[in-house]
Amino acid sequence: MSSGQSLNETMTAIKKHVHLADLLRPHIKLKQEHGSIYYGHCPFHEKQRNEPPEFAVNINKGIYYCFSCHETGDAISFVANYFQKTTSEAVDFLIQKFNLQDKMPPKKTILKVING
């Protein structure tokens, strides 16, 4: 993440540009059931082999929720929790993985005027 950028601005931009299903599919088998709602088995807790999927992903809202363990979040919190990263590390990971450097908010610069 570029220095000078607000972490909140960067996180908002990431959430806007990362399709949650694209992030989750390599780690969770997702099945689309209701338009923008996908279901799969939660990666955050052990499950029984024959249990129905309890992990819901709402693509339009960019969030997930497990009805069993109550884990909830978005793309950034998924990366932070699943890969055990800090929020800042998760942000950097997503920027690199999805090649979002050009989609991030512009850097804020501070100009110093030196009177001679």
Elements, N to C (H/E): HHEEEEEHH
Helix and strand composition category: alpha+beta
Approximate helicity band: 25-40%
Which blocks of ≥5 consecutive residues have pLDDT under 50? 109-116
What is the total domain count? 1
Rg over CA atoms, rounded to whole Å, is 18 Å
Seen as an oligomer or otherwise, the chain set is single chain
Question: What is the CATH architecture term?
Answer: Alpha-Beta Complex
- Would you tell me which CATH topology applies? DNA Primase, Chain A
Helix count, per DSSP? 4
Beta-strand content estimate = 15-25%
Number of strands: 5
Structural shape:
elongated
> How many strands, which pairing sense, and closed or not: the largest β-sheet?
5 strands, antiparallel
- Mean pLDDT across all amino acids: 85
The strand order across the widest sheet is 1-2-3-4-5
CATH class: Alpha Beta
**How many angstroms separate the termini?**
35 Å
Give the full name of the CATH homologous superfamily. Answer: Zinc finger, CHC2-typedomain
